[in-house]
């Protein structure tokens, strides 16, 4: 019958209780058969494609969950910091915005007059900047400019872990009226930053490395909250989320390539 014919020209292997048909075995068996039955061929090829689709869905779902957990932790950390110090509240200090978000109500020369239109234009500028820098990073990786990549990432991590942590620690000291000299403050920041650099770029427990990456992401998010217009911030959140899904999950996405 057809089952005996299938066994003759397809080689299968059992993995974890599931029968898996590999493309190499499929091609090898087809090349040794002169005239394989059309019905049996179509049935086995359909089975192979179905199993491949299932594996693709499992791979994509796993990576989505791997993104959701650190993003959720980062959001909770940002909320905790904002509730702790008032520095990142736009209503407490004069509003100063980043240079690449020129469309806002304080800039009467080029504003469109609508906060939604201003936010969309600012979002497109920032996302375009992120896309360009990501593509530049991919080109550096393609041409094996690893020293430039490491230097770039090292410098950005150095600024986030040392300068931003010092600013945040200063605000916490002022907020809770804690007496601390600069030597002690520098000692705390130095140990925090050096440990982060070692964990990210050298050796360290995986959970510690992930924790430092979440902290640096939270510091970067706080900069956006402080120096971006309110409407732009919400539109940028959606734009960056969509771009991240494309860059990480798509087969030709720049972050997937990295």
Characterise the protein shown here.
The chain has 258 residues and is mainly alpha-helical. Helix content is 73%, strand content 3%. The protein has nine helices and two strands. A hairpin with a 2-residue loop joins β1 and β2. α3 crosses α7, α5 runs antiparallel to α6 and α5 crosses α7. The radius of gyration is 26 Å and the shape is globular. The N terminus is likely disordered.
Strand content: under 5%
Helix content: over 70%
Largest sheet: 2 strands, antiparallel
The number of distinct β-strands equals: 2
Radius of gyration: 26 Å
H/E order of the elements? HEEHHHHHHHH
Shape: globular
Mean pLDDT: 76
Q: What multimeric state do the chains show?
A: single chain
How many DSSP H or I helices?
9
Strands of the largest sheet, in order across it?
1-2
Category from helices, strands and their pairing: mainly alpha
- Indicate the low-confidence ranges by residue numbers: 1-22
Distance between the termini: 49 Å
Q: Which key features would you list for this structure?
A:
globular, 258 residues, single chain, 9 helices, two-stranded antiparallel ribbon, disordered N terminus, 2 strands, mainly alpha
Please outline the helices and strands.
Blueprint: H1 2-9, E1 12-15, E2 18-21, H2 23-32, H3 38-84, H4 115-142, H5 146-175, H6 182-201, H7 206-227, H8 230-249, H9 254-257
Antiparallel strand pairs: 1-2
Helix pairs in contact: 3-7, 4-8, 5-6, 5-7
């Amino acid at each position: 019958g057809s089952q005996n014919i299938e066994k003759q020209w397809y080689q299968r292997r059992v993995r974890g209780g599931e029968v898996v048909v590999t493309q190499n075995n499929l091609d090898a068996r087809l090349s040794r058969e002169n005239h394989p039955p059309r019905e049996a061929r179509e049935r086995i090829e359909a089975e192979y494609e179905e199993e491949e689709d299932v594996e693709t869905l499992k791979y994509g779902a796993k990576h989505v969950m791997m993104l959701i957990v650190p993003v959720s932790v980062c959001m909770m950390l940002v909320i905790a910091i904002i509730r702790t110090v008032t520095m990142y509240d736009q209503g407490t200090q004069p509003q100063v915005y980043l240079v690449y978000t020129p469309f806002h109500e304080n800039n009467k020369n080029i504003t469109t007059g609508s906060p939604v239109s201003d936010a969309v234009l600012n979002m497109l500028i920032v996302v375009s900047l992120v896309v360009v820098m990501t593509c530049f990073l991919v080109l550096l990786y393609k041409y094996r400019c690893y020293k430039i990549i490491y230097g770039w990432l090292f410098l950005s991590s150095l600024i986030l872990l040392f300068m931003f942590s010092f600013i945040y620690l200063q605000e916490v000291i002022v907020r809770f009226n804690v007496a601390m000299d600069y030597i002690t403050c520098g000692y705390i920041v130095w140990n925090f930053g050096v440990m982060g650099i070692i964990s990210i770029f050298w050796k360290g427990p995986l959970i510690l490395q992930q924790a430092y990456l979440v902290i640096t992401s939270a510091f970067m998010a706080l900069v956006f909250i402080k120096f971006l217009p309110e409407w732009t911030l919400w539109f940028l959140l959606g734009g960056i989320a969509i771009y991240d899904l494309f860059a990480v999950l798509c087969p030709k996405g720049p972050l997937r390539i990295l």
